[in-house]
Amino acid sequence: MLSLAEAAEVLGVTRRNLSNQAKRGRIKATMLGDRYVVTAAEVQRYQKEQAGKPGRKSKNGGEQ
Q1: pTM over 0.90
Q2: 17 in a structural domain
């Protein structure tokens, strides 16, 4: 399990952005106490889904 901060770093987005995505159900996250956590598999699924969208940037800064 990864915290949203860890997952956000992997995805190249802010923790706040990922938290909003979790609240909207766009990334499957589980509340553990007062924090969201996600599985590595869900981070990979979300990353693949986002890669096909126009205007998304890869971690190295170039457009995908």
Answers
A1: no
A2: yes
